[in-house]
Amino acid sequence: MLRKTALLMLLVMFVAPYAFADEPTETAPAETTEAPAISQDEQPDELTLRENAVNEKAAELDALEEHLAERESRLVQQEKEFASRANALAAEGRKISGTNAVLLGRETQMTKRELDLKAREAELARREMAFAQESQKFTEASSALAGREADLAKREADLATRESELNAKISAKDAADKLTERESDLVKREAALTERENTASRLNALEAELTEKDTALKAREEAVTAREKSAEENENKLADSQKKLNDRESELARKDADLTARENELDGKNKKLAEDTSALTTRESALTNREAEASVKAAEVAEMETLIKELPAFDPNGSTEAAMILTYKIPAARRRELIAMQREAYSRYSSNRITQALESYSAAYEAEPTANYLAAYWAGLAAERLRNRRDEAIEWADRALAINPDYRPAQELKRRLEGASRNTNTQQRRRTR
């Protein structure tokens, strides 16, 4: 798109200025007053001829530019098709590489070729970018030249108008006046010719620049031809690789058919084996579950027997031992956890780590708040031993009694704490009096 826009701008800038020069209005200056003046049609206009030659040269360059653009477009299309075919071949190569290790090496070679092509494409893009920059510079220079040539054409038109006015005056005056006016007109025409000579020099510079552009376009055409040749060689190589891959794919397809037949046969055997294995797995799972249940029951019975041996008899409403947790109506595994937590908390309590013991008893109570009144009672004992925690100890006793109202240790703890609170209040009142 950028190239087409640049070409269109070049064409407009070359055609617009020269439209004014197609119909010259100047007349050739008279040589002397004695000889008759030579008409403008009879004099050869070298500047017009050179301008026409430049226009023809520009038209040829535009045609060459369009031809190169078509060839580049065709080459880009061929490169896109080549890239698509290369991608398809790469996909087929990756699919076949899973079944044969030999094709992996060939796929690596194809990948390397693709990288080479991408590098060449990057180089071409860089060169095209450089050409676009040069075209932009040429466009700017041409725009400036077109503006200057437009000014020149305007000045020439003004001179032609003034010349026609002077010719009208010459026809109405005397011969002497005509001689003076024609001499003055000759001076003006000489100035106009000088200006046109300057314009001719600028056109010479433009023609030289167009010649350089022609040389660059020829070099670019040679580069495009080389790229076409390289693309054709790569396409031939890819065709050979495609043929080899097709042959290899046919061989692999035959082997795949044989493997499919063997796989179907093995599937039948595996299906029967899976059915037998499923039946055995079901029976093994049932036996494993029964063994696990038996192990859990045996552990519960062993633990129960151990605790019973340690404590032959205890009262659930009066005992403060950990074995009393066995009377809770909760799962056996849960009872074992509470017993372990109770023993750990008692270990801290007996070693005079009261604050840590209170935290452990509290955690044991929170683990089973609807059944573990033993942990609540021991938490009350720990709070009683701490300073200024008597009200908290009464709350723990109330929690234990809320679960088992007949639990005598909690009842005794609450009476003792409430009595101590009353004594303390009495002493405080006496001190106040």
Structure explained in plain terms:
α7 (373-385) runs antiparallel to α8 (390-403), α7 (373-385) packs parallel to α9 (408-432) and α8 packs antiparallel against α9 (408-432). The longest helix is centred in the middle third of the chain and has 136 residues, at 175-310. The model is unreliable at 19-42 (pLDDT under 50). The chain is elongated, with a radius of gyration of 56 Å. It has two domains: 2-28 and 44-264; 322-432, Serine Threonine Protein Phosphatase 5, Tetratricopeptide repeat. By secondary structure, the chain is mainly alpha-helical. The chain has helices spanning 2-18, 46-97, 102-172, 175-310, 332-350, 354-367, 373-385, 390-403, 408-432. The chain starts with a helix and ends with a helix.
Helix-strand layout with pairing:
Elements: H1 2-18, H2 46-97, H3 102-172, H4 175-310, H5 332-350, H6 354-367, H7 373-385, H8 390-403, H9 408-432
Helix pairs in contact: 1-2, 1-3, 2-3, 2-4, 3-4, 5-6, 6-7, 7-8, 7-9, 8-9
